[in-house]
Amino acid sequence: MRDDELLTVPEVMERLKVGRSTVYDLIRSRRLPSITIGRCRRIPARAVREYITNELEAAA
Fold first, then answer.
1. What digits encode the pLDDT tens for the residues 37-50?
2. Where in this chain does the record put each Helix-turn-helix domain (predicted)?
């Protein structure tokens, strides 16, 4: 996964093993940054990695 790669919501769902509504909740709460291109929502791969890292640090 490259830093500049943009992921779709289904790809993020698969990587985090969560449902669609959870991904959109993370986006709405600004815990997972995203951009909109046309009508498509894209999440930077870097943001997914940072989210995982932050959650692991918070749990420790």
1. 999 999 999 999 99
2. 6-54
